[in-house]
Amino acid sequence: MTKQIADEFLGWWIDPASNPDFSRRFAHGFTYRKEPVGLADSGAVWFIEQKLPWSKVDVRSQEVEGDTALIVIEGVDPVTDLRHEISWELVVRGERIVSVVERVDIIG
Fold first, then answer.
1. How many CB atoms lie within 10 A of CB 66?
2. Hey, which end of the chain has fewer CB within 10 Å, N or C?
3. pLDDT of 1
């Protein structure tokens, strides 16, 4: 189940309009932290749902161990046209995401 939710999360993050009901996957009281700084929790989810789809996305790694998924991608931000590396650590309980930590680095 964690792998399926991680795949759905990635698709939603890349192009939120592709799965507009995905935010239902977040558990009540979930945490979403952007590092080093940024919006958190429901504010972060709202921001993602407003953004344009990313392009030239390459999944660099996706590992699932128990209830935790680690995902790393590279992609181009449609607003800045800069390439970024983004990584997430998702914790899933049952069919809900309870925690996300997102890290973003500009790489070109």
1. 8
2. C
3. 86
